Each structure stands twice: as C-alpha cells, then as structure tokens.
Amino acid sequence: MTDIIIAILSTIGASAILVASIGILRMPDFYLRLSVTVKAATLGCGLLLLSAAIYFPQTSVATKAIATIFFLILTAPVSGHMIGRAAYFIGTSLWKGTIRDDLRGRYDYENHRLRSKGEMEQEENIEAGFDRDKGSNQDKGSNNEEGLSSADSAENNPS
Amino acid sequence: MSLSLYFDYVILPILAVSLILVFVRLFRGPEVVDRVVALDLLITSGVGVVAVYSISTDQNTFMDVGLILALIAFLGTIAFSYYIEKKGKE
Questions:
Q1: Which residue of A54, A72, A79, A107 is the best one to mutate when testing the B interface, meaning the one whose CB has the most B CBs within 10 A?
Q2: Residue B89 — pLDDT band, cuts 50, 70, 90?
C-alpha cells in the first residue's frame, strides 16, 4: 500500500519537473519561462521529497524532508520575484505577442522604486502643489533676501 | 516489480531527460537572467534527484544534501538578481 502511494506521488512529481523543463525550453519569453518554471518545479520537488518522507520510517528523515519542502515553498516566490524585478529593470525584451505591459513607465531608474498608478498620481499632485508653494515662497524669499542683504550690508558697513 | 526497480527505470530517466532539457536552455539562453533561472531550476531538480536517489539506494543520509542544495539555490538566485539589478544594462 505504501509502495503504491510512493510510486504515485513520485510519478506525479517527476512529471511536473519534466513539464517545467519542457516549459523553460519552449516558452518564447523570459517572463513566461519564469512563470512556468517556479511553480511547476516547486510542486514536483515537493512531491518527490514527500514520497521520501513517506518511504523512510525514521522520524528524523521525515522531519528533514518536510523542512526542505517548507523551505522551498517559502523561498521560491521570493527568488522568482527578485529575478523578475531585476530582469524588468535591465530591460529584458517582452514577447512580440504581448498586448499589455502594466509596468511601462512606472520604474524610477534613480532610486529603483516601482510605483503604482495611484502613487504616481499622488506624487504628481504633490509636485504641482509644491511648485505652487515654491512660487509663492520665491516671492517671499526674494523679499527676505533683500531684507537679509540690507541687514548684511548694514552689518558689514560698520566693520 | 519492486519500488527500487521502478525508481531506477522510470523516475530517474524522466528526471535525467528534464535535466538535459534545462541544460540546453542554460547554454542557449539569450540573456543572463535566462541562465540564472535555468540554474535555479537545475538545482531545484537536483534536490528531487537526491530525494529519489536516497529512496532508490535506501540510504537516508542523502536528504541532508537536498537541504543544503535548496539553501544554495536560494542564495545564488538572490545574489545574482541583486548584482544584475545593481549593474544595470551594459
């Protein structure tokens, strides 16, 4: 009975890894390759480790296998997100059949920030308001400057 | 048909074929990020190969190797993406 469960689990896992490798070879674009690879490889590897955890009777081995599964599930999305972000930042080309790129123009190339649409509108509003404030401040500033310069000259004259 | 024979003659060949396909992408990849993803997939499949091999030979010591390989794959991908993003397009 246990043998049958192990055989089924490992067959599904090996098939998932095979599908992931075919996908990374056949997909036309880096982003499609990334999206096909991370999930299928995590599923396949997790199922193979689960079959190993069922096969060995010792508790320590099962704990090790389940810890590895947990680590894989935890780290695969993080590494996939980071490499996709780096690829978009260096300008990896999209597939020619792509009909929509939601991130176009959203990347700030100076401080490496990716902004949403609402954030960009908010920043534009703040910038417009800041310009207006700066304009009114400039008049005040010129007045102050005059006052300061006269004060400076008044201070400088006695010396 | 015992479980060891099934693993030796069915599961390990499937994994070997998939590793060969990933190697093709690793050598052909047009950009460096393609190679990084192929390397990540290669090491993740290596964890599965290690698990299958430890069942096939009935030695549970190999499971430690799988844990370390998963750790190295994560750190390698993070380091590659960090430095690629720092460097920018050449």
A1: A79
A2: low
